[in-house]
Structure formats: structure tokens, C-alpha cells
Batch of 3 targets.
Target 1
Amino acid sequence: VLAPRRGWLFPALDQRLAPALVNAAPPARPYAAAAKTAKRGSQKTKQEDTKKKQVPRRRPLMSKPVDDVYLTWYYERPSYDVEEAVGMLKKFQVLDFTYPRQFVYINVFLDMALQKKKKVDPFASTVLLPYRFAEEMNKVLVFTENEQEAEIARENGAAVVGGVELIKWILEDEIQVDFYVAVPAIMPKLIPLRNKLRRKYPSTKRNSLGNDIPKMLQLFREGLEYMVEDERVIKTRIARV
């Protein structure tokens, strides 16, 4: 509402409008309006209504497409035997002009469940494959204080051989190798490296602790390391095309 202003053409108009403006103001309410209570069972009715709605049925997947061009989500994902899959990779490599000696990777899905809702903890290990496909050799450090064992380690391709004097260099990152192996006699002196090396700390469980130095060196120099990712998946390379 526009308030009257003095100096208008109609004299005393502001005096005649004043009572009307005062009466136009809404009366003050000395109490608060009661809030509307929600109807009981309204949520249940909504849930029942959603249940009553029919879920649209999905079209069943077909096994094989009949045309060269098709929608992939209408068909089951094809699976092939190993020999057939490798043959397809070789064929695609020729068509795509890619590197002929590229690696072939595999995804392995494990069942990590145990009884009483327990699971196997993710782990890492090293396997010696019957046919080697990588040219590079892993660098392995051998812990021993026996001179004869040290000489055997050097003859079998150890990158670094030594005893307690290596601890300082490893803690300061002056020495970095792929794997660490040790003989049982020196293990009590390697405790300061437990937190540093973690899963690479020598242990019988990972076959990196023992007296057969040539066997350990062959496993970790030529072996393939793999680990469980995402609690149950192993993603690793297994060959070359």
C-alpha cells in the first residue's frame, strides 16, 4: 500500500486515508499455530505403493549375435579357451600394428571366503614359471656372514651380499633391490629392518629364508611376483604375444 504524501492535489486526503491504513495492518497473534501432525501410516502407504509398482522386465540376453553390428548389452559376454584367446590376441596384434612382443596379462578372481564369515587376508608371493618370458633379472640381496655362503651367493648372481653392515645403508635407502633373502643364522641381527622391508622381510613363509642359497636366488631372480588386489583379484602378466 502506498502511503499518502503531503502536497497532493486533494487536500486532507492523507487524513482520510490514515484510519484505513491503520486498520489494514494485520492483528498481532498472541499464540502460535499448532503444527499439523503427520498421519500415521503415511510412510507405510508410500512403501506399499512402490511395491505395487511393477518392475519392468528386462529382456533376456541372447547367446550369439546374428549380425556384424549389434548392441553388446543384449548379448552374453563371450568367453574363450586359452588357446583361442591367445590366437585372437595374435590376430589383433597384426591388424593393429602393435609391438609383437608385448605382454599378455591375466586377471584371476579368487574365492577368499572361509567358514564362519571369515576371509583369507590378501597376500603376495613369487612363482617360478616353467617358461621364462622376461629378459630382465630381479636384483636380490643376500644376508650372510659366512664367507663360503657369500661366495656361493656371488657365483649364483646375487646383486649384493653382506651382513650387519648393510642395515645402515638399507635404512638410508642407499641400497635398493627387488628381493631380500637370508640364512637363519643372521636373522636375530636383522630385526631393525622389519618395519623397513615389511613384506619383503626374509621369512620361511615366502621361501626367502633358508640355507639353500642357489635355490632361493633362482626363485627370486627369475620368478614372477604377484599379489592379491581388491581383496580377491590377482592381476599379473603371464606371457608375451
Note: Helices lie at 13-24, 42-52, 82-96, 147-155, 166-171, 194-197, 213-222.
Target 2
Amino acid sequence: FIESNKLETTSKYAFRGLRDLTHLSLANNNIKFLPRDVFIDLESLIELDLRGNAFECDCRAKWLMMWLKSTNATVSDVVCAGPEDMKGRRLNDMSSLDDECISTDFVLHQAVASESLSVDTFSFKNDVYVTIAAPSTDSCMVLQWDHIEMNFRTYDNIT
């Protein structure tokens, strides 16, 4: 029960390996969105409580909408707090966010020379960043999207 903790989001890997977890409550927090596949390892999940959060039902919620339709778990109502035209609607009842969300197939955009990588993205002050951990080199690169050159450029390198 991770309730009423003013939680705004969680790591994509927060519940990794918890295959025997049957009940999870994230109720009454400040969650606006959850990272894609955050519940992927929860194979035994019976009940999920997401009440009392302020979910943004935009493209970031599309995966959750699809997951709600496919899970066998009982999930509380996921009520949208925004955007304005979605306010008060239940994500559980929606059939599509396709009109608002555009997706494309993966295409190689930029290559990084490294053998073993762990990659994650994040936004900060309306900019997009990518972190690339390369355990074999004991470093973590942080790349920032360059809107002019249209590629990621080195922002920082943490050893």
C-alpha cells in the first residue's frame, strides 16, 4: 500500500521482479502518468487501486488504457484530470486515444558505439533527454535533444 504519499510518478522498474504481488494500491497520490509497462512483471496481480490521482489522459496514458483492457486484475476507476476535454472521463471506459496520438515504427536515427546499454528517457523543463548507461565502460551518458540539428548531443557524462 503506497497510498497518500504525494507520489507524482514512479520508475518504470519500481515493481520489477514482484511476480507474486497480488494487491497494489497507489491511491490518493499526485500521479499524473505512469511509465509504460510499469506493471509488466506483476503476473499475479489481482487488484490495483489507482483512485484519487490526477491522471493526464494524453498520449502518455495510451499504454495504460490498452493495459486496462487486457489485464485480468480488478482496477479501480482511473479518472482523467486533464487535458480539459478529457476531464472527469474514465480511462477504463475509453476505447481509443488514437485521434490525439500519433505513433510511428522504429527507425534508426542515431547510433551510439557501445556494447552493453541501458537506456531511458526523461523530460526536464520542456526538453527531452536520454540517459545511456554503459556498464562495461563504467559510465552513464546524458544526451539532450538538439532541436536545430535534430539529433541528440552530449549533455553530460557521469562515471
Note: The mean pLDDT is 84.
Target 3
Amino acid sequence: PDVIIEAQFDDNDAEHGQDHLQDTLTDDIKKLSLDTGEKGKAAGVTGVHRTKQDDGPKVNDPRLLPDEFLQRTAKVVYILEKKHSRAATGFIKLLADRNSELFKRCAMFSPVDHRVPRVYVPLADCPPDFVSKPEAYSQMLFICRIVDWKEDSNFASGQLCKSLGQAGEIEPESEGILTEYGVDFSDFSPEVLECLPQNLPWAISPGELAKRRDLR
């Protein structure tokens, strides 16, 4: 039968790595082998005989199976281009384990966008009274930029760039979105402003209007 075996990742798979995935795939292949064998026995009872030439490959060895029975796997070997700005909008809070050494050095940054991982940020980047009054900053939006993510850590490392203001207000939320997507929203420089017409009021001449497409 045309059966495709798919090994799906969950949190435990991510922890145990490729070896766990391979074991899972091998177990599924063995189950398929047993099911096929049982069907063969049932067919033999009804008088259908099979020769050695009709037998398929030994499914105990995954390398001998046809491609349609295997789930392809791969690993990232090189980051060609970083598309994300590594900046995120979110909130800061104290770590849960107050007795750990990490509690004395770092706070936890939780991004609003759940596709971005949580980040350890230095307490030195946080407001001076954050440790004594963390509740005062529970609804304060911050911009954090991820700088590293070690292989043996569940969370990335980053730096707080700035405080945006209260969550839910238009200006802080808008600035956070523009920063995340790497949009430069700073004021135009004098050199750019000098390119604009200086004699005001300025109007498009009839000749220009005739050869332009009007999208107003």
C-alpha cells in the first residue's frame, strides 16, 4: 500500500534531537513491516502464493525502503541572510526563580509577537527601580533587540533599546511596529528637504500632468 510515514516534532523531539527522530521513524517502519507481514499470511490462507522474487526489500533497514515510505529530514548549515530585524516590542518582568544567580543579573523580556522567542536582558538595561517596583512597568512597552542565542540556552540574549510608553496607546504601538520591521521613521535630513520646491505654494504644471498618471 502507498503509505507515507510522517514523524512529527513536539517539544520532546526538539530536546532529544535527531536521534529521537530517527528512532521514531525506525519504529514506524517496523510497524509497517509487521502489518504487511500479517496481510501476507492472510493472503496465503486463501491460496495466493508468493515467491522470493515478489518479496519487497527488508524494511528493517530504512535505507532499503522506497522514498515514499520515508520522511525527509534536514538541518540548517548556514544562514544566508537575516530577514528579521531582531527587534521586538514587548514587556519585561522579573525571573521566577529569585534564588538563582541569573535573577541578580537578568530580567525576562516577553515579546508581543509570539513568533519571537523570549529574551534574557541585563538588569542594567532596565529602569533603575524595576527590581523594587516591577508592577509599575507591567504595562510598559519596550523595544528589545536580540544579539545572541546560545545552543545550550532555552532563551535568547538581548538588549533593551528604549522604552516606548504605555501599551494600547497609538504612538508607542506604531513606533514598535515600525521598529520591528526596520522602517526608518526619523525626520528628513536638511539635504532631503532641500530637494523639495522652495517656492510655495507649489503646483504641478499642466505639462507634467499630461504625461503622468493621476493617482490622487
Note: Residues 126 and 155 are 18 Å apart (CA to CA).
